[in-house]
Amino acid sequence: MSDERSKTIAKFNMYRCLVVLGMTLVACAAVAIIVCGVVIVKPVVETNSLEFEKTTCTTTKGYLTGKWIGCGCGKNCNSAYPCLRILVTHGGQDSGTYSGVMFENEQRLNGNGHLDEDSQCATQHCDQYRNKNMDTVTAFNDTYGAGETYGCLYHPDDTSKVIVKRLFTWDAMFHSMLWPCIAFFLFTVLAVFFCYQCYKAGKKMSSLPITVAPGAPAAQPGYFIPPQGGHAHAPYPQAMPMQQQDPYKTAYASDNKGYSYN
């Protein structure tokens, strides 16, 4: 095999591996975009949490609805937590007082704000042991229970829903989408480039002749060079073996013509 063909094959194999790597990175960037969109962007956009304004909330009632909400606590792990509903009063821009349902953050508001009253859970904790989930929910109720006053956030156009804290800012939402999108674009360009180089190397490899190494038997008519480790085959049909001649018959065939012996 010539050096040029060996180098071309090596280059082809290298770019083929890079294509696989590039496509894997593209897939990872796409997954990152989806995850950030669902976890960060979706709650912010759907609840308009960036427009929420600060106010002061006072809890009027906090109670367990009696419903347990199912949740996933890991791989092959399912659990549930009790639903705690908290009712509050808060002030508005016009110095009025409004009633509303309190949620821990915009994710909780986005996930449970539109559900029935017995599923409007203020907080969530998902451990594999339900008693731990109960303890965590109870501790949250002790912190924000009836009569407690604390800072909260509300939307001027919808005073019926409030949150205790905002998880994501504009910068967090912007950067959560910017960098995965940049990575997706760059990895896509690299993957396309590697595919093109792999195609060129494969085309060049197919155009190069296959040469026989020095010292290898040359091809003869009716024969072929076997692959490495194989055996050469005789041409078909096989030549008939030469018949063995009688040496005495050969020696006296011409000299004893016309004579006979008794």
Quick recap of the structure?
Helices cover 42% and strands 22% of the residues. With 262 residues, the protein is α+β, with helices and mostly antiparallel strands. Strands 1-2-3-5-4 form a five-stranded mixed β-barrel.
Walk me through the structure.
- The relative contact order is 0.16.
- A five-stranded mixed beta barrel has the order 1-2-3-5-4.
- A hairpin with a 2-residue loop joins strand 4 (149-155) and strand 5.
- 42% of the residues lie in helices and 22% in strands.
- With 262 residues, it is an alpha+beta fold.
From the N-terminal CA to the C-terminal CA, the straight-line distance is 71 Å
Largest sheet: 5 strands, mixed, barrel
Strand order of the largest sheet: 1-2-3-5-4
Task: Tally the helices.
Answer: 5
Question: What keywords describe this structure?
Answer:
262 residues, alpha+beta, 42% helix, elongated, disordered C terminus
